[in-house]
């Protein structure tokens, strides 16, 4: 079975993904800082950062899955 040689990523899409992921991390870090049960600023930053890092990884995966499904639907509709 022949694989298509079309690239699935471009520099623009990587830049858009990076901006979205960084923005999501900053947003979640700000939200999560208020929910860490500690008065020590270092612990608040540590746990808010670790938690928002995990959530950002899940967000990145969701963005990539959305992109693949969108491209698959576009290719299927173009073939009709």
Please characterize this protein's 3D structure.
The chain is elongated and about 60 Å long. The longest helix is centred in the C-terminal third of the chain and has 39 residues, at 41-79. Helix 1 packs antiparallel against helix 2 (41-79). It has one domain (15-79). The two termini are 21 Å apart. It has two helices and no strands. The model has no long low-confidence stretch (mean pLDDT 90). It has 80 residues and is mainly alpha-helical. The protein has helices at residues 11-33, 41-79.
Defining traits:
80 residues; single chain; 2 helices
Please specify the SSE layout and strand pairing.
Layout: H1 11-33, H2 41-79
Strand coverage percent: under 5%
Principal-axes shape call? elongated
Helix content: over 70%
Number of helices: 2
How many β-strands, per DSSP?
0
Measured on Cα atoms, how large is the radius of gyration?
18 Å
Largest sheet: none
- One letter per element, helices H and strands E, the order comes to HH
**Count of folded domains:** 1
> Please, what is the average pLDDT?
90
Q: How does the helix and strand content classify structurally?
A: mainly alpha
- Intertermini distance: 21 Å
Residue windows where pLDDT falls under 50 for at least 5 positions: none
